[in-house]
Amino acid sequence: MITSNLSELVIPIKAELSCFDEKFKKSMKSKVGIVELVTRFILHQKGKKIRPILVLLSAKICGEINERTYRGATLVELLHTATLVHDDVVDNAEQRRGFPSINAIWKNKIAVLMGDYLLSRGLMQAVEGEDYDFLRTITSTVKRMAEGELLQTSKTRKLNIDEPTYYKIISDKTASLLSTCCEIGARSILDNEDKIIAMRDYGEFLGVAFQIKDDILDYVGKSSIIGKPLGGDIKEKKITLPLIYALKQVERPESQRIIKIIKSGADSKKVNEIIEFVVNQKGIEYAEKMAAEYAAKAKECLSIFSESESKSALTSLVDFVVERKN
Amino acid sequence: MITSNLSELVIPIKAELSCFDEKFKKSMKSKVGIVELVTRFILHQKGKKIRPILVLLSAKICGEINERTYRGATLVELLHTATLVHDDVVDNAEQRRGFPSINAIWKNKIAVLMGDYLLSRGLMQAVEGEDYDFLRTITSTVKRMAEGELLQTSKTRKLNIDEPTYYKIISDKTASLLSTCCEIGARSILDNEDKIIAMRDYGEFLGVAFQIKDDILDYVGKSSIIGKPLGGDIKEKKITLPLIYALKQVERPESQRIIKIIKSGADSKKVNEIIEFVVNQKGIEYAEKMAAEYAAKAKECLSIFSESESKSALTSLVDFVVERKN
């Protein structure tokens, strides 16, 4: 199986994706100078656009993309951007190991406000388009995402995450939005609940696979590509699937010893020791197996749809997610 | 004129306010432990509940309070709580003069997420109640509030705020939500646009008067009551109406000298010097005059309504806002 390239996957929606880009740029316009400045900065750091791509493909597998689809794509991308901006509040602080500069604090203030601004812009567009079912889905997603992150934060403090809790966290914080993208895309075209639910489930399974893979890459990714060192989760005391599995393979004194190292704040040498421990205990293999299982479930959801370019793209997207190297 | 006491003002809606308290508590429930913990903490620090009081009084001046009114009151209080929680991100940092502890950073993370959570909870309730006109109003208010704060933040950096910019900022960041409260309250009862607009304008003028008074109290409030020292705005380099006016009364070298002191970060002695400068240049008197003008405009808006207990309460609320000592 050849790992798909994201730019190949979007061929069925190439024209629509440029159309989205234009609409998205427009949706961020503001008369307030600093808002324009920050949004230009955000637009400059183009992301992979996985979420709008999901909306567009999930729509196209159901029929022809329309204005509602674009509004949905804009809404999820605004929402995703808002959460990224809010994430910066935390990430900035961590990069500086607990001592942000005054400059970093200004960024905090701006990051919080810009996140609120982008979120409300997205919701306003849904309200103006009278896309009330989108609104229902999206507000409950925002709530799930915040709850997921809060659960992870509190569990991180106690370092007591088991496998079911792990799935609950990643389902809330990551899969919920991808699932919403697919649901919104399908719903923008049709009201066949079977197909809408199939797409929603596809997004959920894809999202879980995506996050497991993300967590694997934190252990064995190519650090030069992602631009950050391996073991970031260990340093941040985040217990993810590879470690959860590895800890269960050893006797209690050994697992307690590992947890103690993480708790006290592991330095680079200790981080490498823990990565080695996880690899030796087959934590990576197990997590890869689970990611593959969720990937297979995601593909199964598509069986309800007849063959099309969009269906092939959505199938390949699953492979892309679990086979990517960064 | 006797300064009204807030507890007297709420007599016309006493029963409804307890009913609101119950509903609000319920609206914050969560299965996630840390969310429960933080919300209990928030519920414990009971605020003045100005916003739900405004919703309830604005409804009662129009007719009998109903379920829609309560949903509106809950929505605005959730939203207000969300913004307070987000404000903590900034305030915490400032208290520690640019060096928050690791503990303070954890709070940042939780504050950002809890704010997002509360905001989405509020919006979800509006979606579930199918109160789409509330949603339209509230999402545009969230956007205005964020824009107002962002404008203030960027202007603060440059210290170049004139009077029109000041009104734009306080209208967006403070008056917009109070105006929304009154609009939502009226709209929950009737669809007479004249009365709805009268209540919306009442809220807007009240909000501007409220913020001017807040800014005055930062110069001449009783610090022992508010629990924070005077001149906080000067330390945070926020230029508000008393100072804007005072700076305009003196020659450029003198105003440049004052701005330079603020820019370089005033210590307590310098803060007192600037407070004295503002008082001597009659900045407080001017701001009091402007607050009184907006207060009068707010009262005028009520002339469309016939006499009632609620109308008297809304009139006294204006006096309360401009005459309060903290």
Write the layout of secondary structure elements.
Two copies of one chain form a homodimer.
Chain A: H1 6-9, H2 14-27, H3 33-44, H4 50-60, H5 67-95, H6 102-128, H7 132-158, H8 163-187, H9 193-220, H10 223-226, H11 232-235, H12 241-248, H13 252-263, H14 268-280, H15 283-301, H16 309-323
Q: Can I get a quick summary?
A:
With 326 residues, chain A is mostly helical. Chain A has helices spanning 6-9, 14-27, 33-44, 50-60, 67-95, 102-128, 132-158, 163-187, 193-220, 223-226, 232-235, 241-248, 252-263, 268-280, 283-301, 309-323.
User: Which runs of chain A of at least 5 residues are low in confidence (pLDDT < 50)?
Assistant: 93-103
The CATH class name of chain A reads: Mainly Alpha
What do the pLDDT scores of chain A average to?
86
Oligomer: homodimer
The largest contact between protein chains, plus residue counts on each side, is:
A-B, 51 and 51 residues
**What fold name goes in the CATH topology slot of chain A?**
Farnesyl Diphosphate Synthase
- By CATH, the architecture of chain A is named Orthogonal Bundle
The CATH superfamily of chain A is identified as Farnesyl Diphosphate Synthase
Give the termini separation of chain A.
18 Å
Note the total helix count of chain A. 16
Number of domains of chain A: 1
Query: Could you tell me the strand content of chain A as a percent range?
Result: under 5%
The profile of the biggest β sheet of chain A is: none
**What is the tally of beta strands of chain A?**
0
Shape of chain A: globular
Classify the secondary structure makeup of chain A into a structural class.
mainly alpha
Radius of gyration of chain A over all CA atoms, rounded: 20 Å
What is the helix content of chain A? over 70%
The ordered string of helix (H) and strand (E) elements of chain A is HHHHHHHHHHHHHHHH
